[in-house]
Design goal:
133 residues, mainly alpha, Serine Threonine Protein Phosphatase 5, Tetratricopeptide repeat, 7 helices, 74% helix
Length: 133
C-alpha cells in the first residue's frame, strides 16, 4: 500500500515538473490571441497569468478599439475579484465607469461592459463590511 502511494506521488511530481511555461505571445499577435490565452488561464484558475496577459494586451496594443480596451479592463476587474482584491477591483470598476462617462457616445465602447461593470461595482459595495452594519 505504501509503495503504491509513493509511486503515485512520484509520478505526480514528474508530471508537475514537465509542465511548461506558457509560450510567449508574438509581437504581431491579434487581440483575439491575448483574450483566448487569458481566458484559458483564468479557466484553469491561473489568475496572475490571465492578469498579465490582459495587462500586456493593453500595453502592446495602445491603438486597440474601445471595445477591446474596455473588455480587457473589465476582465482585469473580474480577475481581481477572483483573487480577493476587492478594493482594487472597486477602484478599477469606478475608473471604467468614469471613463465611459467621458467618452463620446459614438466612440464604439461596448455597452455591455458598462452594464456589467455597474452591476459588479454594486455587488462589491453591497458586500462591504460597512454596508452590512
Amino acid at each position: 500500500m505504501k509503495t503504491a502511494s509513493l509511486t503515485a506521488l512520484f509520478f505526480g511530481l514528474i508530471l508537475a515538473s514537465c509542465q511548461t511555461a506558457p509560450a510567449p505571445i508574438p509581437a504581431d499577435a491579434t487581440p483575439e490571441i491575448y483574450f483566448q490565452r487569458a481566458q484559458a488561464a483564468s479557466d484553469m484558475n491561473q489568475y496572475d497569468e490571465a492578469l498579465a496577459l490582459y495587462k500586456s494586451f493593453l500595453t502592446q496594443h495602445p491603438d486597440a478599439t474601445h471595445e477591446d480596451v474596455f473588455s480587457a479592463r473589465y476582465e482585469i476587474g473580474l480577475l481581481l475579484l477572483k483573487k480577493g482584491q476587492h478594493t482594487q477591483a472597486q477602484a478599477d470598476f469606478e475608473t471604467i465607469l468614469a471613463d465611459f462617462e467621458n467618452l463620446d457616445k459614438s466612440a464604439g465602447a461596448p455597452g455591455w461592459v458598462k452594464v456589467l461593470t455597474a452591476k459588479k461595482l454594486q455587488e462589491i459595495k453591497d458586500q462591504a463590511p460597512e454596508a452590512k452594519g
